[in-house]
Amino acid sequence: MSNFFNKSDLTRQDADKLVSETLNNCDDGELYLEESKSESILLDDNKIKSSNYSSDLGFGFRAISNEVVAYSYSNEISKDSLKNSSENLKSTLKSIKGTYNHEIPKSNKKFYKDINPIEQKTLNSKLEVLNKVNEFLRKKDASVKQVTASFAGEQKSIEIIRSGGESLTDVRPLIRFNVSVMLEKNGRKETGVYGIGGRQSYDDYLKNDNWKNVCEEAYRIASVNLESKPAPAGEMKVVLGPGWPAILIHEAIGHGLEGDFNRKKTSAFHDLMGEKVASEGVTIVDDGTIDNRRGSLTIDDEGTPTERTVLIENGILKNFMQDRHNARLMNTKSTGSGRRENYRHIVLPRMRNTMMLSGNQTQDEMIKFVDKGIFAVSFGGGQVDITSGKFVFNCTEAYEINNGKIGSPIKGATLIGDGPSILKEVSMVGNDMMLDPGIGTCGKAGQGVPVGVAQPSILIDKMTVGGTKL
Amino acid sequence: MVKDQEFLKSKASYCLDLAKKMGATDASVTVGHSISETVNFRNKSLEASDRSDGLALSIETYLGKRRSSISSSNLLYENIKTLIEKCFETTKITPEDEFNSLPEKDLLAKQISSLNLYDETRFENDKKIKYLKDLEEAASSNKQIINTESSFTENKSNFILANSYGFCDGYKTSSFTTSCVTVAKDENSMERDYEFSSKRHLSDIKQASDLGNKAAKQTIRKLSPNKIGSEKISIIFDKRISKGMLSVFASAISASAIARGTSFLKGKIDQQVFANSINVIDKPDIIKGMGSQNFDSEGVNSNTIQLVENGILKNYLVDTYNGKKLNLKSNGRSGGTTNLYFENGNITYEDLLKKNSKSLYITETIGHGSNLVTGDYSVGATGFLVEDGEFKYPVNEITIAGNFKDMFKNITLANDLEFEYSVNSPTMMIEGMTVAGK
Questions:
Q1: Which of A189, A264, A342, A465 to mutate against chain B (most B CBs within 10 Å)?
Q2: Of the residues A130, A400, B179, B339, which has the fewest C-beta atoms closer than 10 A?
Q3: Per-residue model confidence as pLDDT tens digits over A171-207
Q4: Which residue of chain A comes nearest to B186, CA vs CA?
Q5: Residue A422, C-beta contacts closer than 8 angstroms, at least 6 positions apart
Q6: Alpha-carbon Rg for chain B in angstroms
């Protein structure tokens, strides 16, 4: 655990005093201290292209009065700097007459260990794995033209000091291992990408030569795409595979169920609480409590222990995801969803691990049911316009379905749909729920945070596929 | 106040001296300081204010052809020392790469001319509040607007780039950015749109009421959209989307993508890649330009480059490392383009709308559907159906798709170029793309 006060002229007593003084009469707020250490090592084009280490230290001071949030950050932890921030907050809020909410739930549960993954594996052994990846893939066959492999590791220590001196802390490890391969055959080039990660040490993910499986998967995706035909254009049935394709849920439904957009009534879901928004059999939860997952958090960035929040239960909209600020203004409780990218940013309600739970059908049954459509196995990124509800995502591995049979692979195409109605088009829910491999980063208001997704195979009766073949 | 040149220089030379002392054969350091203040408004009242004050340091150390880097926001001497030690230890065990080196000495910028990129005017938060109030008053005076959100950010930055060849320079920049997002509602739909303005100098920022009104009008006209059928149709890209085509083009001609072989434009120098009426220019010395610079992120002097001449690709964007791989000299584009633009076409905006009896006018795209390896393009889109030069009705929940190799050759540009951002394009028409809808 970082001690934020031992190298500074600022003592904990000074900080406590200034926090309490500044937040007196505010409705909420805190001092957030953060120290992060991160590394990234990249092999590209047969060489170790870069090896970067970075350390970051700073604080963010937040004061909330009614609907107004004042925020000030600095990467200098000192008496003067904190005082400046305090003055800045006071000058923004001017007349304040709130009552500070001291209540914050407690939990002893932890969902990952206090480790520093960077220190747990030597640089030499990381370089060795990257070189093995390069060699392994390039030996496969002559079509392999480019290999990129990378390690990214981080340890982030945070401390939250609330008015009255209460302090909450967390140490968060996070790693990611990624492989990308480009193949060229008969003048065509295609790329395949695969990665794994989470909140454990590198070796927890790489044991038993697991890096080979990552290579094989990236190579397989690229090989499939070398044979791909132009994708169809128009409305049709879509079968989604289990696991990572749940970013559809994340984009189509998840963002629209974040508290801020609903308080501001800019989400297409804001007046649908308690209503049927999905087919029967569809249950979606957002869970921050799964051990060692990329999107899991012991406490959120306001200090609230995370939880498993039921968003949609058997088709009915049950809950939004809340941070303390939006929860207070909407007369409800934080769901432990208050997150920020780092001390430079304000807290927003965000997703953690967003999951659609299993039903009882098989993927085979779904494919057999489709006369003409596509089977989407993996996706790149997605995006949503939460106001109109329209969302997109890009297939990176997909196949046509003709008369109940899987046919040729198709080129990467964008799928577009309407968030509030898409889940009503779900006509079958599979029994094969799977978590994604631990690679997701969600962007909102310029802030990226690690997230997870999960789902079983599902059949969507109608979606627009953005190919070129009419 | 943003830290002055002297402060940053002293930190930079401390780093260089220390790296040398430890045995680094070469080193390069960037030290920067940035202060920004943002005020956020929602529905005509203050929602948030945000002040940030951040120092940043990044160092690269070389041991012959070995290289590694570190970055940090903690500029205490004790911390810098620990980090440089760590960086140099890492450098020692990082494998050699024959292309690693500082830029050639004679390419480094020598004379720094003033591009007027810094406006020291302080726009106090109270003035920002007044501006946003006016802006939102104007936006919400339009019936059907049910929500307004806006923000004003003032930023002042300073930096020093120094390397062991003796290069040591930097300069202050400022920016003032205001944006407005409005939501409109009718009995059929709820829609959102936006408008923004970003300038080096405060006096060049658009009038608050103009910005608010424009955002509101752009939002209201999107209400009650239809979905259209799937077909091949000529597509007109509004300026705010057409400039995105240039950004894709810039990524595809970066020396790194070319050297790695992962660009659909690899090996296309001196070949026709655009329609023969198209010229693309990257100009770093525009006075007050949002993308203007005296030198690139390695200190290399940057001059104006014609990237495309009469449709023919003339230059890549070259940095030192990838340039060596390709046997090309750096052209000062480490860090990418500066002020990038398409030259005007020779048809008016009105005539472009009328060019076909039916076309689709795109005002927004969503998704990350650009594949630089294959050139395939497929994104979600919203816009308007245009018939005989008239906007008929709004369209959404459709996708547009094609391949950049074909799309670039079928571009027609209007003559309405304006220098608003760091990437600028006239309104653009591309024929032969596929729309997927119903």
A1: A189
A2: B179
A3: 999 999 999 999 999 989 999 999 999 999 999 999 9
A4: A388
A5: A248, A252, A253, A391, A460, A463
A6: 24
Question: Among all residues of chain B, which has the CA nearest to that of A267?
Answer: B190
- Cβ atoms of A40 and A50 within 8 Å: the answer is yes
Domains and CATH numbers, chain B: 5-220 (3.30.2290.10), 226-438 (no CATH)
Q: Which two tokens mark A180?
A: 């990308």
The end-to-end CA distance of chain A, in Å, is: 59
Question: Looking at residue A357, what is its pLDDT?
Answer: 97
Distance CA B41, CA B44 (A): 6
Can you tell me the mean pLDDT for A33-50? 93
C-beta of residue A169 within 8 angstroms of C-beta of residue A107: no
CA distances from B186 to A139, B145, B189, B284, B394 (A): 61, 9, 6, 45, 13
Q: Give CA–CA dist A15/A164, Å, rounded.
A: 11
What's the DSSP call for residue B206?
P
Question: What is the CATH T-level fold of the domain A123-226, as seen in this structure?
Answer: PmbA/TldD fold (3.30.2290)
Contacts of B325 in chain A (CB under 8 A): 45
Which residue in A has a C-alpha nearest to residue B193's C-alpha?
A387
Helix (H), strand (E) counts: chain B: 9, 18
Q: Which percentage of chain B shows pLDDT scores above 90?
A: 92
The amino acid at residue B223 is: L
> Strand, coil or helix: what is B276?
coil
Q: How many helices (H) and strands (E) does chain A have?
A: 10, 22
